[in-house]
Backbone:
């Protein structure tokens, strides 16, 4: 859930409703707000290490061995993913699906319109009808 | 010549489009030359751009979606879209095409909520030394993907760019058109969320 729950308690009291059971914060999807985290400073050195600003020994001393080991494993997994390459044949498939002329897509009002004889007659009849209605309105 | 942050890099990647005959990395000027060629009717020249940028873009799509099949589709659709709108490129091609891929990934995430994904859906070779090690790391991989899927798309994007793609905050800021400070905040939030989700089992 990505909505802010501000005002929940207040509304419950006003309406006399049963208080809504809140979900455990740890199971909710995290909010996407760029604001300082509560208690985030305790992980400062861990981030510094992960950003390459301090060495592993220092991070391990302050943050604890277990956290550093966890992130070492996550980093190893990330390294594996970094070696992934585009599967064979995808580049050829993209090239094969390209039209001969690039950059042809443009806004609809710039595109050429083809009108068939039937469409031209229909448009003409429509315009006559609209014109007739307008004339009737001003009589 | 200015190198771009999105080129296929080093020997780890497939495709030789990452360097010029003089051994230097191609850059923005080289991209512009290729774009001019393509717009002049040389369709095959677009293949150079695909070779040059497909690997990092594929990794981004894979990191964001967790599915090799979806990542391939997003990559293909993005390059086709880029080709159709090539005449509208203003500035850096690599940043422009990256945004097409990044937006496609976010759209996909908005439409499909995944609870479990696996990177072993395709046939890329395993590099584990023993079956036990493979089992152990597969478990972490699955749990990491499960945890990543629970992050908001912008946090996931920041984590993938920093940890999986190995980008600097400056490169990320250039590609996402935001500030280094905002991206640091997103990466920190993503790490703390992942740690919270994984440390009970692993730490």
Residues:
């Amino acid at each position: 859930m990505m909505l802010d729950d501000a005002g929940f308690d207040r509304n419950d009291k006003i309406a006399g409703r049963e208080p809504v059971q809140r979900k455990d914060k740890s199971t909710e999807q995290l909010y996407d707000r760029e604001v300082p985290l509560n208690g985030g400073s305790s992980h400062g050195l861990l981030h510094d290490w992960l950003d390459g600003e301090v060495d592993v020994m220092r991070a391990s001393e302050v943050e604890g061995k277990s956290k550093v080991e966890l992130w070492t494993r996550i980093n190893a997994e990330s390294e594996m993913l970094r070696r992934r390459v585009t599967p064979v044949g995808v580049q050829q498939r993209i090239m094969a699906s390209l039209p001969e002329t690039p950059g042809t897509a443009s806004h609809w009002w710039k595109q050429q319109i083809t009108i068939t004889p039937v469409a031209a007659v229909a448009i003409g009849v429509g315009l006559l009808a609209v014109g007739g209605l307008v004339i009737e309105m001003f009589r | 010549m200015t190198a771009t942050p999105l080129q296929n890099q080093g020997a780890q990647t497939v495709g030789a489009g990452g360097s010029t005959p003089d051994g230097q990395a191609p850059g923005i000027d080289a991209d512009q030359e290729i774009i001019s060629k393509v717009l002049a009717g040389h369709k095959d020249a677009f293949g150079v751009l695909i070779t040059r940028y497909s690997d990092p873009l594929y990794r981004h799509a894979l990191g964001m979606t967790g599915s090799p099949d979806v990542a391939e589709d997003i990559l293909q659709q993005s390059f086709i879209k880029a080709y159709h709108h090539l005449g509208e490129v203003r500035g850096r091609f690599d940043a422009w095409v990256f945004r097409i891929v990044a937006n496609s990934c976010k759209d996909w995430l908005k439409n499909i909520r995944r609870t479990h994904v696996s990177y072993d859906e395709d046939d890329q070779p395993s590099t584990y030394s023993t079956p036990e090690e493979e089992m152990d790391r597969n478990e972490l991989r699955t749990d990491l993907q499960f945890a990543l899927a629970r992050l908001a798309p912008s946090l996931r994007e920041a984590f993938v760019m920093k940890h999986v793609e190995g980008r600097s905050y400056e490169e990320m800021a250039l590609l996402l058109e935001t500030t280094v400070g905002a991206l640091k905040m997103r990466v920190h939030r993503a790490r703390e969320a992942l740690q919270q989700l994984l440390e009970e089992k692993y730490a």
In short: Residues 1-112 of chain B form a domain with the Rna Polymerase Sigma Factor; Chain: A fold (CATH 1.10.1740.10). Chain B touches chain A through 67 residues (CB under 8 Å). Residues 180-202 of chain B form the longest helix (23 residues). The CA atoms of residues 40 and 109 of chain B lie 37 Å apart.
